[in-house]
Amino acid sequence: MVPPGTYCCQLRSSTAVERGHCRRHHGGRREKALPLELEKFMSSTKSTVLVSLGNNIPRNALWVICDAFDKFVEGYFGVVWRMEDSEICSDKKHVMLMPWIPQNDLLADHRVEMFISSGNFNSIVESVYHTKPLIILPYSTEQRLNAAAAESKGFAIVMNPDFVLDDGDIRHAIINLLLLDPDYKRATLRASAILRDQRDTPAQPESAKIDHVIKYGNQHLQSRVIKPSQLTTSDVFPLLMALPTATMMYVSMLLLCICCCSCSGCCWWFVKCVKTCKKKLERMKTENAQVLTVRGGLSRVYNGGVFKIKYRARGKDHSTV
What we know:
The protein is an alpha/beta fold. Helices cover about 45% and strands about 15% of the residues.
């Protein structure tokens, strides 16, 4: 799948052109002749606009676009619109609605001046290849990325379909592309020249690689063997774990020192806790019995200042002072 947001000026191979059905004549299919119905309609107008917006555009936006077409002079300006809904713009004589259109063949016709699209990748590639500027009304995330890329190169005008509420905006965009601003046409011509500048067909580079492997083998193309520790970077994990631990300990000790030095109450509480712990340890040493020497069955025990001798005989404990 071609990454969203890439398009003609960023392509480095002709495989994307092949995917968009915009191949060079010597490497792909030629444009076919238009159906008689389309040919007759386009011959009756001097300029044609191609519209293909998909099925996700809001219905009110479609009516606004239709009203914008209604303001143009009949006989001079024609519209070929891929539209499955026959109710929209059905009463306009200069608007031809079709459930399916030969898009690439229409864009290749010199009578088509511009393309109003939803911003699919193939549509942008085909339109730029045939030097047709675009008005893009993107709806999905991928279409928005493609539209932003096309607008940044200067051959497209992007409009939000959710906020197309005035037919004047559509008319202004169409007039800009066709009449007023020649920069759009120049940018489209440059992008088309870059896209067409493919010395090899898509099959030629792949064929050259296969011939190279047959001739020399593939040992020199393989990457060197690396250790599992290098592949997983497991030797870095202990360091990554030790750094935050050491940092937390250092910060804790620093905060404790600052607290003891700045707050007399905290310092007094800390010292008191330490003294209390020392006293408890000393009391445990003196009160608890501690075995000093052990020899055979006899044990010398010190408890409360009195030495007691304990010995074990026949499974019973005996003690003497």
